[in-house]
Amino acid sequence: MLIKNYLKGQAICQVTFILPQAITAQIASLAGDFNEWDTKAMPMMRNEQGLFTLTIELAAGREYQFRYRINDEEWYNDWNADRYTSNPFGGDNSVVTV
Q1: What is the DSSP letter of 43?
Q2: Strand partners, 18
Q3: Is the pTM of this model over 0.90?
Q4: pLDDT of amino acid 91
Q5: Are 27 and 19 in contact (CB under 8 A)?
Q6: 3-state secondary structure at position 12
Q7: Does residue 84 contact residue 92 with C-beta atoms inside 8 Å?
Q8: Cα–Cα distance, 48 to 95 (Å, whole number)
Q9: In what order do the strands lie in the sheet with 45-46?
């Protein structure tokens, strides 16, 4: 799930990424073109409800590709992404538009 919060007077959007509860994970991270697909750069933390979440600031007026990395083994897309786009590995990446 994605929650977008545009900051008043700034060209920045705070985006909260929430891993779907149906995905069983011990650890989770967010990787995308905003962090050069570094699976260690943005670890997600569990919230009070036990869901993995992470909030980051992104420049508005752009699209960003991303995926979730689960247990350092598997890739997952966001089921509520704004759209999807093909990746060079024969799958799809999630896209968030801000």
Answers
A1: B
A2: 53
A3: yes
A4: 94
A5: no
A6: strand
A7: yes
A8: 27
A9: 2-6, 12-18, 52-59, 45-46
Task: Grade residue 23 by pLDDT with cuts at 50, 70 and 90.
Answer: confident
Q: Note whether 2 and 94 are within 8 A (CB).
A: no
- Tell me the residue type at 24: T
Question: Bridge partners of 85?
Answer: 93
CA dist 66 and 70 (Å) reads: 13
Over 80: is that where the pLDDT of 22 sits? no
Q: How far apart are CA 75 and CA 29, in angstroms?
A: 10
User: pLDDT, tens digit, for every residue of 42-92?
Assistant: 999 999 988 999 999 999 999 999 999 999 999 999 999 999 999 999 999
- Give CA–CA dist 33/12, Å, rounded: 16
Per-residue CA distances from 1 to 8, 20, 78, 94 (Å): 23, 7, 6, 11
CB 33 within 8 A of CB 39: no
